[in-house]
């Protein structure tokens, strides 16, 4: 078989690519025989070549959030690349792995990833009768609350392919488990010298609740020594999403008064997830300030805001695999921050719709997250 790799590479990394019959696997555009070259390009010394490879992979094995038969195999190769010190920009490898595991992370905030639900829905999809699934979808169309929504739902029915939807759920679960297999690698990378790698590793660990005990211990150990504010904030949110710990509340209580905006915002988010504690009033104030600061931001498109009305539940085109957010389009770097500086400048979870996140955090405290007049 052709060797695609240039430069020194571990045997495991080579095997993860060269021992796979990629032509027999598929992605969004057909046979996946182009994936080995794209994976190889992630180790290129040319940043333009790496950008093109990331763009391609976000578009084929993760097309608009959908995972495919080739995706779990790509994930295994990416884990090997993440573990290899010779791989440039390992933070980007970890970011891609997070996407392959769970899709778009905003669908799983502020409560974390529900792995049990993914497993249950994949099992249910595998057992469903296609005719019954179509009847249920016809009922869903008929129950639309408006004519506009009915037309959109009817379009989904028209293009509905149950076999593909069932495969999407299976591929989503297989991809999740493939990425989960690398949790020991991600925990080890919490000690990496590059802040961007520590941030990306912490962010990735948050999505595997079945491995929470070891991961929370590792994240709390990082918090004890971490001097980079964004890395500390990311580790804290990750630990929260994995269930939290009393030591996490202590950290957040101290960080809430930080002059660093990232730390204070993350601390408020963490404390909201833990119930607020004795700092409840201060947490509510920080979250309402965040909502007020975002109040002048552009309003989301009405159709996008009503995505739950249009997307058929229980298929691969939901939280785990489909159209919950914009896909990768346009420029090769459109899917994720590329530079170490960009990764080190923001907490991965706490970007995007900050007002929406703050509202959701307030609701965890039993507050009215949507009452902007109260801020």
Automatic annotation (TrEMBL):
It comes from the Bacteria. Gene3D superfamilies: Leucine-rich Repeat Variant. This is HEAT repeat domain-containing protein.
């Amino acid at each position: 078989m052709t060797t695609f790799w240039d430069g020194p590479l571990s045997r495991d990394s080579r095997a993860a690519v060269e021992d796979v019959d990629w032509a027999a696997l598929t992605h969004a555009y057909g046979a996946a025989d182009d994936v080995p070259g794209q994976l190889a390009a992630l180790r290129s010394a040319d940043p333009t070549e790496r950008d093109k490879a990331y763009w391609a992979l976000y578009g084929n094995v993760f097309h608009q959030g959908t995972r495919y038969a080739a995706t779990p195999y790509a994930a295994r190769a990416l884990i090997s690349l993440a573990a290899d010190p010779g791989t440039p920009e390992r933070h980007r490898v970890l970011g891609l792995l997070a996407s392959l595991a769970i899709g778009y992370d905003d669908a799983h905030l502020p409560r974390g990833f529900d792995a049990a639900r993914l497993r249950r829905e994949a099992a249910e999809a595998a057992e469903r009768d296609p005719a019954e699934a179509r009847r249920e979808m016809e009922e869903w169309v008929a129950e639309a609350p408006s004519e506009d929504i009915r037309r959109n739902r009817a379009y989904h029915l028209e293009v509905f392919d149950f076999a593909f939807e069932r495969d999407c759920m299976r591929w989503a679960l297989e991809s999740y488990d493939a990425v989960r297999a690398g949790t020991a690698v991600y925990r080890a990378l919490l000690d990496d010298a590059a802040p961007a790698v520590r941030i990306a590793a912490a962010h990735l660990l948050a999505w595997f609740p079945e491995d929470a005990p070891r991961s929370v211990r590792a994240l709390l150990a990082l918090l004890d020594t971490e001097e980079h504010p964004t890395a500390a904030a990311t580790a804290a949110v990750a630990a929260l999403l994995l269930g939290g710990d009393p030591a996490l509340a202590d950290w957040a209580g101290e960080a809430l008064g930080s002059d660093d905006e990232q730390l204070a915002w993350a601390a408020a988010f963490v404390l909201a997830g833990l119930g607020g504690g004795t700092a409840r009033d201060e947490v509510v104030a920080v979250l309402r300030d965040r909502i007020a600061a975002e109040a002048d931001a552009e309003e989301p498109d009405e159709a996008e805001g009503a995505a739950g009305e249009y997307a058929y539940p229980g298929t691969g085109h939901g939280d785990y695999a489909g159209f919950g957010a914009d896909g990768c389009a346009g420029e090769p770097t459109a899917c994720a921050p590329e530079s170490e500086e960009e990764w080190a400048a923001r907490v991965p979870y706490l970007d995007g719709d900050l007002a929406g996140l703050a509202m959701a955090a307030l609701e965890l405290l039993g507050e009215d997250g949507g009452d902007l007049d109260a801020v």
